[in-house]
Amino acid sequence: RSRLRGSVLANRLSSNPDYSVLLLENGGNPNPIQNVPFYFQSLLHIPEIDYGYYTVPQKHACLAMKEQRSYWPRGMGLGGTSNLNCMFWQRSSPHDYDRWAKLSGSDDGEKWHSQKGNGIYVSTVGHDNLVDEFLEAGREMGYPTKDVNGNQEPSFSRLDVSIKEGRRFGAYPGFLEPVLDRTNLFIYRYAHVNKIHLEKKTNRAYGITYKRHGVERFVRARREIIISAGAIDSPKLLMLSGIGPKKHLENRMPNQSPSWEKPDGSHHDNIRSFYCGHSWKNECAWERHNLNTVVDYFSNRRGIMASAIAANAVAYIQFILKRDWKFEE
């Protein structure tokens, strides 16, 4: 989300000709093969497009993983992880984001689903494998078939994805590619930011140091500096700049004197697993991937390769945990 937000900010800020915007990106343009939705999982772990982070060993999770560490993919390049994710488009719950609650609603038209064509393009998965059976199962359990990206009540529906005409549609084509010709927007690719510089008396950020093509450079900001490096690299850059929990900075970076103490935060991600049941084995994506599907995709931009790992439906089910769970620190 942070990288997508960076693309949005670069677009919105540079729309004002009075502003000069410098966008520094550690990677380059999205790799063309990333446009093919089907291959998203095969492109993980590639250093040029994925930072390839792992979590620290977990106590109560990742029990089947090596060293109980979870792989945490993060996209490198303009558009960030929107070039690497599985393209599922699910809106956040209004219960988690109360300020956005009024934006919820049913799929009645442009009120909740804009048709202007700006930003991320969202479509509904086109292939119908087991969709009817899935929706019917939901109805048997008492759940309506409705748009889960509308008012978000418990329901079953087809899956929305950020795919346009069989191609991934992330932050780069949505917000950056259309404005590359703006004369007040400067994009430096392969530029790694190392430090944010703060004024000693006021702690006001006034510039950054970055390294590009082996040369370290300094750039001063006229107005402000916006960090949008993701859930891992944003706090990392802050701490490298002396901003963060004082105790952590003193223990982990003894040579870095804290410039500004800020309380630490936390972040979590979900663990996901896939399986292929015997009853629908022939519907598994990789088992149906052959020369015909490749030709169909590159000729017509359709078929299983134009989909997000063969997923095509989703359900929001409401339930209540009655057991009191206790976790050790």
UniProtKB/TrEMBL annotation:
Protein family membership: Belongs to the GMC oxidoreductase family.
UniProt cross-references to Pfam families, sorted A to Z: GMC_oxred_N (PF00732)
Organism of this sequence: Orchesella cincta
MF annotations from Gene Ontology: flavin adenine dinucleotide binding; oxidoreductase activity, acting on CH-OH group of donors
UniProt protein name: Glucose dehydrogenase [FAD, quinone]
The protein's required cofactors: FAD
Residue ranges the record marks as coiled coil: none
Keyword list, A-Z: FAD, Flavoprotein, Oxidoreductase
Glucose-methanol-choline oxidoreductase N-terminal domain mapped to chain residues: 230-244
